[in-house]
Write a structure and sequence with these properties.
By secondary structure, the chain is an alpha+beta fold. Helices cover 31% and strands 25% of the residues. It is built from twelve helices and 13 strands. GO terms for molecular function: ATP binding; ligase activity, forming carbon-nitrogen bonds; magnesium ion binding.
C-alpha cells in the first residue's frame, strides 16, 4: 500500500512519517518541483503533473493507495477537482466544503460551545476593530484589518475590483481580538477513541510581524498583511490545556453530529489567548496544518502519549496501520 499526498504544505512530514511506519510513499508533484522531491530518500515514487486536471488523474491512477489531504489541496486543486478524487482519503472529505466556507466554519465552532469572536453580517454594523477574511486556506492572503465601517467598505471594494472575491458574501468580517496567537494541534483517533494534543505553533506572518521591528512613526502608512511565511514553536502554560481539551472534544462531538462520519485525524483550533487567559477560537483547520512541520521528531506533547518520536505525519500513518491490523480502514477513510 502507498501513502500518497500532494507535493506542498506538509508533504515531506507526511511521507517521512509514512516511511517510518513501513509504508510505500508517493508524492504527486508539480513538474517544476520534481527535482526538489528527488532529494529525499524516504519518497519512493514521484508522479509529476503539468496541469491540475492531470494531478487528479494521477491521484486516481494509484488504486492501492490512501491519499492524505493537507492545506494546499483545495487551494490548489479547488473543490470541483477534489470531488473527483476516487481513491480513499484519510479523514472526512465531507468536511472540506465546510472548511472552505468561512460562515459554515464558524457555525461549527459556535455549535461546539467554543468562545469565538463576534462577527458582522454587514459593513454597516461594524463598531470596533475587525479583520476581514477570505474563504479557503489562503494562508492569510488578502486578509485586512479595519478600524471602522468605512475602512471595511474600502477594503472590500479593492477585493471586488481585483476579483479576489465575487461578492461581499464571500468574506467574513470578524472582531479583532487582542491577545497572543496560539494554534492548538489535535488528533482524533477513531481507532483509540481519544483526542490527542500533538503540539502548538504561532504563525509567522508578513508583513505584520516585520512591522513590529520598526518604530511606529515609520509604519503608520504601511498596510499590515497576514500572509503566512513560517511557523514558530510555542508551549502553553499547563493551566490553559483543560479548556483547550474541552473545546477540542466539543468540536469532535459537533462534527460527528453535523458532518458524518465525523472528525478523523488531525485538526487545529486557531486561537488567541487574551490577557485574562481566555481562549478565543477564530478559525479551525480540519486536517494537518503546516505548523506541525516544526515537530518532525514529535512535539513535547506527542512524547507524553507515545514516548517515541511521533510527528503528526507519522501519527497519521500509525492510525492507518492500527486500522489495517484491525480491519477498520473504512472507519478512518472516506
Amino acid at each position: 500500500m502507498y501513502i500518497t499526498t500532494l507535493g506542498s504544505h506538509s508533504s515531506l512530514q507526511i511521507l517521512h512519517g509514512a516511511k517510518k511506519e513501513g509504508f510505500n510513499t508517493m508524492v504527486i508533484s508539480d513538474e517544476k518541483r520534481e527535482n526538489f522531491y528527488k532529494r529525499f530518500q524516504f519518497i519512493d515514487k514521484i508522479n509529476k503533473y503539468s496541469t491540475l486536471d492531470d494531478a487528479v488523474k494521477l491521484i486516481n491512477s494509484e488504486i492501492d493507495s490512501i491519499f492524505i489531504p493537507h492545506g494546499s489541496l483545495i487551494e490548489y486543486l479547488k473543490m470541483e477537482r477534489v470531488k473527483k478524487i476516487e481513491i480513499p482519503i484519510f479523514g472526512n472529505r465531507n468536511l472540506f466544503e465546510w472548511e472552505s466556507n468561512q460562515k459554515k466554519k464558524m457555525s461549527l465552532l459556535k455549535d461546539s460551545n467554543i468562545h469565538i469572536p463576534d462577527s458582522f453580517e454587514n459593513p454597516e454594523e461594524v463598531d470596533r476593530l475587525v479583520i476581514v477574511k477570505l474563504p479557503g486556506a489562503k494562508g492569510g492572503k488578502g486578509y485586512f484589518i479595519a478600524k471602522n465601517k468605512s475602512e471595511v467598505k474600502e477594503g472590500l471594494n479593492k477585493l471586488l475590483e481585483s476579483k479576489e472575491i465575487s461578492s461581499i458574501e464571500d468574506v467574513i468580517i470578524q472582531e479583532y481580538v487582542v491577545g497572543i496567537p496560539m494554534y492548538f494541534h489535535f488528533f482524533y483517533s477513531p481507532i483509540l477513541k481519544r483526542v490527542e494534543l500533538t503540539g502548538m505553533d504561532i504563525r509567522y506572518e508578513t508583513n505584520v510581524d516585520g512591522l513590529r521591528r520598526l518604530p511606529s512613526n515609520l509604519t503608520s502608512d504601511i498596510e499590515p498583511t497576514f500572509v503566512v511565511a513560517g511557523n514558530i514553536p510555542v508551549i502553553a502554560r499547563e493551566s490553559l490545556l483543560p479548556k483547550a481539551f474541552d473545546y477540542a472534544e466539543n468540536f469532535v462531538n459537533t462534527v460527528k453530529n453535523k458532518v458524518p462520519p465525523g472528525m478523523i485525524g488531525p485538526f487545529c483550533l486557531e486561537s488567541v489567548v487574551t490577557e485574562d487567559l481566555d481562549i478565543v477560537v477564530f478559525e479551525f483547520s480540519g486536517r494537518i496544518v503546516a505548523g506541525t512541520n516544526l515537530y518532525v521528531e514529535g512535539s513535547p506533547y506527542s512524547w507524553l502519549y507515545w514516548d517515541e518520536p511521533m510527528s503528526v505525519g507519522r501519527r497519521i500513518a500509525r492510525e492507518i496501520k492500527l486500522a489495517s491490523i484491525q480491519n477498520k480502514l473504512g472507519e478512518i477513510t472516506s
